[in-house]
Specification:
Order of helices and strands of chain A: HEHEEEHEHEHHHHEEEEEHHEEEEEEEE
Largest sheet of chain A: 6 strands, mixed
Number of helices of chain A: 10
Structural class of chain A: alpha+beta
Radius of gyration of chain A: 23 Å
Shape of chain A: elongated
Number of strands of chain A: 19
Helix content of chain A: 25-40%
Oligomer: homodimer
Amino acid sequence: MNRSLILLDHDEYTLRLSRMQQAVASCADAAILSDKATLYWLTGRVFAGFVYVPADGTPLFGLRRCVQFESDGVTAERKIEDFARHVAAAMPAPGQLALEMDSSSYSAVARISAAFAAQWPDTETVNAGAALRAMRAVKTPQQIEMMRRSGLRQEAVYRRIPAIYTPGMTDYELQVEIERESRLEGCLGQFRTAGDEMELFMGNVLTGDNADTPSPYDFAMGGAGMDPSLPVGADGSVIRRGCTVMVDVNGNYTGYMTDMTRTYRLGDIPAEALRAHELSREICRRLAEMGTPGRPAREMYETALGMAREAGLEHRFMGHRQQAGFVGHGLGIEINEAPVIAPRSRDILAEGMCIALEPKFVIAGVGAVGIENTYVVRADGRPMECITNAPEEIIDLDK
Amino acid sequence: MNRSLILLDHDEYTLRLSRMQQAVASCADAAILSDKATLYWLTGRVFAGFVYVPADGTPLFGLRRCVQFESDGVTAERKIEDFARHVAAAMPAPGQLALEMDSSSYSAVARISAAFAAQWPDTETVNAGAALRAMRAVKTPQQIEMMRRSGLRQEAVYRRIPAIYTPGMTDYELQVEIERESRLEGCLGQFRTAGDEMELFMGNVLTGDNADTPSPYDFAMGGAGMDPSLPVGADGSVIRRGCTVMVDVNGNYTGYMTDMTRTYRLGDIPAEALRAHELSREICRRLAEMGTPGRPAREMYETALGMAREAGLEHRFMGHRQQAGFVGHGLGIEINEAPVIAPRSRDILAEGMCIALEPKFVIAGVGAVGIENTYVVRADGRPMECITNAPEEIIDLDK
């Protein structure tokens, strides 16, 4: 058994720590971090505890459980107050201490603040959220490789979807069988999200007019869901002839997620639906070409909306009764990382960012059409690399 | 389509609102609430938005999405600042305003506080967390009925487990097939938790020595998991002869969850394992008898620990290499509601509380044994009602 808390190889850990220390230095003199996504980002392992990261120097880890990982610089600490004492005995007082105010509860931040204020009364606390979000937006080559591996396995599942479908199935039944295929392929099921605007199981399957039912969640598409306690996605509708089925079941196979959507149909569908689907593919291609370092994310959204408008499909773009206000989003450990491809986004693309683009359309009486792919931003003016490569055409489930 | 935001019938909504207003009155003059579990508790529907609940009078709702539910007292509000203006125009300034400081992020609470401070500079903000937690611990008869319905469907799935098993299966493969059966039975998959100490997919299946692997999460049992990004539960071990398989796959069929664990075996297992399993059943029976209104939760934990000690199984109780510090927990919309059955718990049982008891043991070289049931606290000195009634004996998968 590996008894080291740090699961990453030495070079990767050194790289990530140096990037984290740059992020800390951009907002404070040190940070105290405990969000599971942050700890996993730094160490390659989810654990329960804290890490104190000085902008310069060696971090100190405190474990609330799994004390088998105790070692040099890694101590068992049941309470944050004990950890604060330990840190203060070993480290000089920082002028500013950054905390994860966007992801930790008010009560948790208040307790951490109080624990460190008891040791360092003159230290000011600030929010690490924006700096960590920007740090996580840019993936290391090893993280990108983990995303590529997720994409390959998600693609393998999607290639099996036509064989999974049986006549008379509901959207929900098809979803359950896709979930099973995903799990057997090694999908971890877990779908981490940042903030309070999302709740979801493994993904969504939408058919017919259910695609036009507004949902309270901040996803591209809606759906009534099976129960008012989780009002999103499949609602148990039978997949009917002349309708589409949009499959957006997530791909978390490595701790790093890919996002891919494909559209299927049962028999013939109207020309408008086919045209909108081709437009979605064309928008993805165009945005992938635009997606070079230095590009404002906002411009990509404007281009997508402009193409929808030019095709007379603006009122069907990203929903119909309720329209989502974005066309893409960063992703990695969480499904909604930076950048966001939206009209008021101030994000600027950089090499190593991973972005899901999902220009989708809702066609009345038919359902949702369009695709979603996950891309990596590259240097040297090359288009973004697509890492979710299942066939993009609408496949007829009747064949 | 139901166009009313409130999905509950009139009497149930009146009952819940009055209980919420008592909770608000116990800590403040009004509350502003936005946690999805809280909104679902009050309305029977998850939505994106806010509710302003005065200790006395009519609440005001603000919707961030799904504006089809706009009506009297329900307005569309993109931003909390707009909602605060709207509320302040309609309501007198409260002396104290309670916010969900335990479940909302620091940044979200700070933004809500600032929005209301701009309207009501003399209003003080306080934490609604403890009062809401106490409120939710006691279920209404209608909520208990929803839990009973979850329990019946979870039981139906558990009865099919021996037929699902095929020789040579790994713990993970068995889990995937149980997940599929659960989903086909209508399990929503979603598994809401309070706080940051848990992350989980649909539940856990543990076999052999993997049951003794410590996990960073605050669950009764551990397990290495399939990946360091989700280190809990099945690790891909083949289910071996002479070992047990513990199945703890959650039952959220109605928005209200039940928790049930059953143990299986492949062929014969040592006498110590059989004895520990029978002790788990005996602890459940004893605690169910003790579980009457007015009972300190702490006493139930002490009784369970005392019984384990008397049987010489204390060092195997609730884990071995790492032991969990509780034997039961409240549940409902979230899997870890009040009360907690633990040594330092200050919770007192009350009629209508729903509690999962899970006295489990880890036997070296064999695996985990024991059961878990969900119970309802009743009046009149009767034992708690068990609502998860699959057979409790260890079933041999080899038969």
